[in-house]
Design brief:
- With 183 residues, the chain is α+β, with helices and mostly antiparallel strands.
- The protein contains eight helices and three strands; from the N terminus they run αβαββαααααα.
- Helix content is 50%, strand content 13%.
- Strands 1-3-2 form a three-stranded antiparallel beta sheet, with helices on one face.
- Strand 2 and strand 3 form a beta hairpin.
- Helix 5 crosses helix 8.
- It is globular.
- 26% of the residues are buried.
Length: 183
């Protein structure tokens, strides 16, 4: 972490900071209040809403103290994938009239290059992609190793397949998963 974490009392203060700094700053670490901790700090949902409005995204998270944690936010890049959760949040922010020009620009770029349509499902709803199941079925040792993993471990393993845009990229991601299970 390169700078002291920023603290905001609410989403409006974070949004004002983004409006003033988003063109000159590429990232920010925020101190976020834990749910029901009564910290008076910015809530995680409000932080993400503000970030999405300006074309930023949540990244790394670190523990901090008993009432808060640190969350890194940064500008999206041309390779930043979209989750279905964030697509839905962005659409709600547009409908509410809160989306800002930088956010619209990131959405337009994602729609143009296919990342928007390829938004990945959250872990709670995710199932292994069919092409991965087919590849695992063809390699019994890999399938056995996959089945021995917890649901969370499986998701982390096949998340790159879900995030891959286009059939060739998905195929390469499937190959990497199978190879990792047989190594």
């Amino acid at each position: 972490m390169s700078a002291e974490p920023l603290e905001f009392p609410d989403g409006a203060a974070w949004t004002a900071w983004l409006a003033a700094h988003q063109e000159t700053t590429s990232e920010a670490w925020l101190r976020i209040g834990k749910k029901n901790a009564g910290s008076g700090l910015l809530a995680i949902g409000d932080a993400l809403d503000g970030a999405l409005c300006f074309g930023w995204i949540d990244a790394q998270r670190k523990g901090f103290d008993e009432i808060s944690f640190l969350q890194r936010y940064c500008r999206r890049t041309a390779r930043s994938s979209w989750s279905q959760v964030n697509v839905a949040k962005a659409e709600a922010l547009i409908a509410a009239g809160r989306m800002q020009d930088p956010g619209y620009a990131e959405i337009a770029a994602a729609q143009a290059d296919g990342r928007w349509a390829a938004a990945y499902v959250p872990q709670r709803d995710a199932e292994p992609p069919e092409e991965l199941i087919a590849a695992l079925t063809a390699r019994p040792a890999a399938l056995t190793a996959f089945e021995a993993l917890s649901r969370s471990e499986r998701y982390l393993l096949y998340l790159p397949v879900l995030k891959a845009v286009g059939a060739p990229a998905r195929g390469r991601a499937v190959e990497r998963v199978v190879a990792s299970l047989t190594a």
